[in-house]
Amino acid sequence: MSFANQVAIITGASSGIGWELAKTLAAQQCAVGVLARRQDRLDALVQEIQAAGGKAACAVADVAERGPTVAAIHSLRDQLGPVDLLIANSGVGYPTTIEPLNTDQIVRMFNVNTLGVVYAIEAVLPEMLQRGKGHLAAVSSLAAYLPMPGESGYCASKAAVSFYMDSLRMQLRGRGVHVTTVCPGFIETPMTAHNPFKMPFLLKPDRAAQLIVRALARKKKTYNFPWQTTLLIKLAAWMPEWLIARALAGKAGKGGTKDPPP
Ligand SMILES: NC(=O)c1ccc[n+]([C@@H]2O[C@H](COP(=O)([O-])OP(=O)(O)OC[C@H]3O[C@@H](n4cnc5c(N)ncnc54)[C@H](OP(=O)(O)O)[C@@H]3O)[C@@H](O)[C@H]2O)c1
Q1: Which CATH class, in words, describes the domain spanning 7-247?
Q2: What is the pTM of this model?
Q3: Where are the beta strands (DSSP E) in the chain?
């Protein structure tokens, strides 16, 4: 029970991977602070965790907004205690269109997927440095490794977050703060529910959460999973662009989050 008696904050916990991460950690006697925009979903999650004997609290914020995100995480810290583990998991995905260019949605992906991680880290890092211990994790994506037609905004927002975390890890060497970049393949969540193509090696979100928590307990620097999709993506990254474009024609750029587009 690696996370027993610790405090974890999870953003994007109102559904999918984040929801399951909160339950998995709470089952290990970790106190969990959960954050997202939908209060009713967070209330239901807190109730479910408490009914199972766990400790949880929730706070509402849009992670694209710096002040409210930092304030929400501070309020969770005040309720639960100093934060040992942050999992910045909130994310949205929209296909990228070129005619017309959907700039608003691209901006939104950077604001939520990339800056949302930066703001969440801002809320916990000073105290982690003061205590000389802590663990920062962000849920990026295997999409960070492969530029894909129709997914340029999503891929770029995730590549940015992966580089941010990987660089931060080097900067935090010797300060007692671990940094993990989590890169999942396809997970069966509301985000992928409308993908009209077959998703290879699709994992259930509870299994994804178990794997992520195990990787965090092992203090992995980067956790790419499942290995089959990782291999496919890494091989594809060596292929010529025309081959990727042809292979993904009609596939990438067709799915997306259930969020109403901005
Ligand atoms: N599913 C996959 O195949 C897959 C693969 C690789 C990476 N990922 C990444 O995994 C993470 C979790 O995604 P998921 O698959 O579990 O999707 P999901 O079920 O749609 O969950 C997304 C979570 O992010 C929250 N969120 C979205 N926008 C937000 C905002 N502006 N402020 C605060 N919270 C926000 C949502 O809560 P509210 O709507 O209540 O705010 C929800 O809890 C994302 O970062 C995603 O990019 C997913």
Answers
A1: alpha beta
A2: 0.97
A3: 7-11, 31-36, 56-60, 85-88, 134-139, 177-184, 222-225
